Amino acid sequence: MGRYRVGLETRERILSATRRLLAEVGIEGVTLKAITANARVGAGSFYNLFASKDDAVFEVVREAIEAVDPDPAGAGTDSLEDLVDAFVAFMTGSSPIARIYLQLAGRGLTDPVIAARVLRSHRRRVERFADAWQREVPELEPAEAAARAEVMLGALTGLGMTALMDPGFDMRRHALALLPDAARLRATG
Amino acid sequence: MGRYRVGLETRERILSATRRLLAEVGIEGVTLKAITANARVGAGSFYNLFASKDDAVFEVVREAIEAVDPDPAGAGTDSLEDLVDAFVAFMTGSSPIARIYLQLAGRGLTDPVIAARVLRSHRRRVERFADAWQREVPELEPAEAAARAEVMLGALTGLGMTALMDPGFDMRRHALALLPDAARLRATG
DNA sequence: TACATATTGGAGCGAGCGCTCAAGTTCTGC
DNA sequence: GCAGAACTTGAGCGCTCGCTCCAATATGTA
Fold first, then answer.
1. Which nucleotide is nearest to A11 (CA to C1')?
2. Is B161 helix (H, G, I), strand (E, B) or coil?
């Protein structure tokens, strides 16, 4: 499976086509026919290199998440409004990863394996937000900071869904309302 | 569509079969064949009563949501905490339809037809929440009440997703944090 | 060069999908 | 009890799906 030069190149073309299609039509819209047509490859070539369609899809999603994940060093210097802005940009920006992420989360509602993966990345993000809350409002109990982070992320996720369905939706405006007064003033100032 | 007694009964049998199947096998598992076999009805009868398969699915979801409505008549008597409690009950209660609702919303991220339907019901709900905000805090500008309703519903949706993936998640606790102080005190007694 | 192995395209398989349609049956109001 | 609307059936249409198969060809190795 991909031992000769041409084979590896074909593999890359297939992954690239899958990536492009995931971005354009989402997880359910990705068909084998679309992938092979887009990669200009026969179905036989595809199955010479991948065990199944899902095999290719998971590989692309894995790579995409990895590319976005980094948490650069986790230095802990990001403010609450930084995090909110980053999340809004993630949802409303040009990158299609957000849509895929939410569709994956939707699958997680019935697929325990996917649910575990989604929850893990969710928890990591809640921690980041909780830390930022603590820095913003130092007198907060840690549990209270965590609770506020949870609510904030929930709201951002929900607002993101609306934003992705309704292009006219001003996600940033609503998202900023989630900030404590001081941070909101800084952000809108 | 469903004007004679038998027709209405058939309609109920179909909805009941759809409800049962949605609960048992999830949204992907519900096929027309399964519905009609389960309801002991020909495909033609189905299409005499429903415009499409999705039509029946939406109806089931709509009814499930309505079932937890604290003010089905729209009398304008529901408080903010009533609405939040109803949403939490819908998400965390015994009915498996909440899962279906969120999966439908997920499909709306790439399917414009579904997106339109989801957004329509979303807007209706935002209005209900906005009215309740207005009643709770009369000095609020209408636009501000609408904005708070939007954020609140976004948060409830996002928290619902977490709750459905993580059985240990205390959705109600986090949801109540979204209420204004007076209402929160009333709700937590 | 000779040969094994990897890679290729694409016709086509079998299954399953949502949905249509023509024909016959049942119900209701008058 | 009759007209006509509402209801019913289920074979089957047209389509798409993931995937298989295999002869032809390209590639790397000795």
1. C7
2. helix
Q: Looking at the complex, does the CB of residue B40 fall below 8 Å from at least one CB of chain A? A: no
Is B125 within a domain?
yes
Residue B75 CA to residue B94 CA, distance in Å, equals 27
DSSP A142-162: HHHHHHHHHHHHHHHHHHHHH
CA angle A128, B148, A89 (to 5 degrees): 40
Residues B46 and B75 in one domain: no
Residues of B in contact with A25 (CB under 8 A): 110
Tell me: do B74 and B139 sit in the same domain.
yes
Residue B111 near residue B157 (C-beta atoms within 8 A): no
Whether A103 and A147 share a structural domain: yes
Q: Residue B60 domain-assigned?
A: no
Angle of CA points B126, B132, B135, to nearest 5°: 145
Residue A127 belongs to a domain: yes
Q: For position A69, what pLDDT does the model report? A: 44
Distances (CA, A) of A97 to A22, A61, A111, B84: 9, 9, 20, 31
pLDDT confidence of residue B180: 93
Nearest Cα residue in chain B from A101: B106
| Domain span including residue A179 | 69-188
pLDDT digits (tens, 9 = 90+) for B79-95: 999 999 999 999 998 78
B154 reaches A (C-beta below 8 A):
yes
Choose among A20, A26, A23: nearest CA to A106: A26
Return the exposure string of A52-88: e unless at least 16 CB atoms fall within 10 Å of the residue's CB, then b.
Answer: ebeebbebbbeebeeeeeeeeeeeeebebbebbbebb
pLDDT interval class at B108 (50, 70, 90):
confident
Q: Does the structure show a pLDDT above 70 at A151?
A: yes
Residue B170 amino acid letter: D
